[in-house]
Amino acid sequence: MPGSLLMIILYLAVAVFVVGLIKRGLKIAKLPIHLRWELSPVPHEKGKASYGGSYLEEFEWWTKPREKSLLNEFWYMFLEIIFLKGVWENNRRMWYFSFPFHFGGLYLVVVAVALFKLSAFIGFTGTNTSAIASLAIGVSVIAYGLGAFGVIGLCIQRLTDPVLKPFTTPSHIINLVFLGSIYVSGLAAIFSISNYAAQMTGFIQGMVTFSPPALPGIMGLHVILASAFLIYLPFTYMMHFVAKYFTYHEIRWNDTPMPGNDKMEKEVGELLSQSPTWSAPHLKADGKKTWVDIATEEMDK
Fold it and tell me: Among 232, 221, 215, 209, which residue's Cα sits nearest to residue 182?
């Protein structure tokens, strides 16, 4: 498959992904302030999160200084992102497939790509990088194998589990099959091409010098599938990894007191001054009364 064509497709895919990622991130960041959960414990509360406490238990808490532990917050995020702690605690059956899917099919794939890039860039100096390339191959096999296992398991669960089935949409299955095709094509390329590492390293070097070599058919297909997925990703719910940051830091963990926070007070005040038009009879919303009016007037029992 022509290397120049693959180069154009891959550069285009990366550009679309980066632009889409930034656009979705900014869109979420600009959304109105969310109703905070204010649940305890919050990992960054120093000295209180360990026993499930909160500064809210203290008298006139808003007047007292608070200590935060970024280390505790980082550790919680590490366990959640790498080991899917929340899935382990709340849906153990799903974790057995979701963990290999995420850890292998996503995280280890990134590691493998990084190793191939490292091998390619060091190769420009004339240094022998066979050891790095071999490591990249090993990581790739593990990553694609775990990813494929996770895809198969998640597809079966979503199609048969009485709890998951009602919430499974065609897009869930399409996304899993799409990713599965990348893993399978990657494994097929590795085991069918004897000099896969050299081919991949040479292609990456060619991407830098704008003169990539042609790739064998199955390897070219693998690159095209991966590129197509990068283009597709920003327009799907799989961008939840961006939304998750805001869900945790702005909703679950945002415990900043409003008194003395001019920016927050202004934003909340603007939202409370809006006039809802909901048809729920208990609100008596007529499009004129504000949220403050509705919240402070006596409701019919």
Answer: 221
For 31, list phi and psi in degrees, rounded to 5. -65, 155
Residue 45 bridge partners (DSSP): 68
Give the chain's radius of gyration (CA, Å).
25
Nearest-angstrom CA–CA distance, 211 and 177 = 32
Domains of the chain (ranges; CATH) run 86-236 (1.20.950.20), 262-296 (no CATH)
Q: Please, which residues bridge with residue 271 across strands?
A: none
Question: With a threshold of 0.85, does the pTM exceed it?
Answer: yes
What is the C-alpha to C-alpha distance for residues 208 and 284, in angstroms, rounded to an integer? 64
pLDDT by 10s per residue, the chain, length 301: 898 999 999 999 999 999 999 999 999 999 888 888 777 788 888 877 778 888 888 888 878 888 888 888 899 999 999 999 999 999 999 999 999 999 999 999 999 999 999 999 999 998 888 899 999 999 999 999 999 999 999 999 999 999 899 989 999 999 999 999 999 999 999 999 989 999 999 999 999 999 999 999 999 999 999 999 999 999 998 988 888 888 888 888 888 888 888 888 899 999 899 998 887 787 778 888 898 888 887 655 4
Contact 216, 189 (CB under 8 A): yes
Which tokens belong to 281?
């009879």
Tokens describing residue 286: 């007529």
Cis previous bond, 216, omega within 30: no
Q: Which of 200, 73, 40, 69 is nearest to 132 (CA)?
A: 200
Separation in Å, CA 260 to CA 69, 84, 264, 267? 22, 36, 9, 13
Phi, then psi, of 69 in degrees rounded to 5: -120, 105
Q: Return d(Cα 118, Cα 191) in angstroms, integer.
A: 22
